[in-house]
Amino acid sequence: MRTLVLDTNVLLLDPDALLAYPGDEIVLPEVILGELDKIKVSRSDADTRFRGREISRLLFELSEGSSLVDGVALPNNGTLRIVPFDTDKSMPEGFSAKNPDDRIIVTAWLLHKNATEGDHVLLITNDLNMLLKAQTLGIPIQRHDGGDDSSFAKKYLIRPFQRYRTPLLIMAISIAIFAASIVIAINTSVTSQESILPSEYRNFLTEEQAGGIDALIMLQSNPSDSESLLTIAKLYYSYYEKAVIENSAQAISYAKKGTQYYQRYLDLVPTDADARVEKAILTFYTGDTDSAIEDLQTVLESTPDHVRGNYNLGVVYMQGRHDYDLAETYFAKVIELS
Length: 338
What we know:
This protein is α/β, with parallel strands linked by helices. The chain has helices at about 10-15, 30-40, 45-65, 100-115, 130-135, 150-185, 200, 205-220, 225-245, 250-270, 275-285, 290-300, 305-320, 325-335, and strands at about 1-5, 25-30, 70-75, 80-85, 120-125, 140.
């Protein structure tokens, strides 16, 4: 097993670095959290502050319902934990507990020194000074090559859009919900089959977003409307699929929200195999392998020839349990059914 200690500069270069090492244990020295907080309010360039906020959001999503100090599962079958710095431990000669970089290096050094046979500890950094100091302690070093934002398109088109996309979308949705609420107040006989949003406000949104708002507002008056619950669940699933590529923190958030709506829907319609498979996919992405397997097995108990059920159960056993023999069985079933 590999334990990778990430340096602050790696995270600020690439917020998705936390998810860039499938199957490995990612360690963040506690001092990094303080450095990220400073970056968010510093006079650093806008891109650096943006990436600092992205990392904070990702850590917040991962910590929901779990302890980062105890360790949390990552969507890539790895784990993440925060390691507090023990100020009572003596520092190697030439290192100071007051220096954040030194605390990161010493954290990696202690893990390396106490590693059991077969375990490998590496310090991931792109900082030359840190690299040289770490080498004096015999710590294996590796550079992180992801997160290149140097191109014109990424710096001036993609990043600014990512930064302001959410506030603009929230503004449009808020206008639409306000208008729809007025419609409901006037006409309380609206059913789940009708569009709640006035046509003028629908112009601000895609059909998918407008349908989602219709469903959200319907759930305010009827929390058990199964059609609306499924609409919101599928909307979160769709957003999750898009966010996996460009925004890991948002993907985890969408996966968690989607799981909740799928569960509410399945409590009402437990026989919907397709919905249960999609819930399992989201659940697995949030790190809950056991629940994903349970849902997929439930699907196959009632529908043994469900292609997506067999395929995703194979994926979960392969990536989440490293049970390649069992995974092969489910993949073979998919080939048979195709």
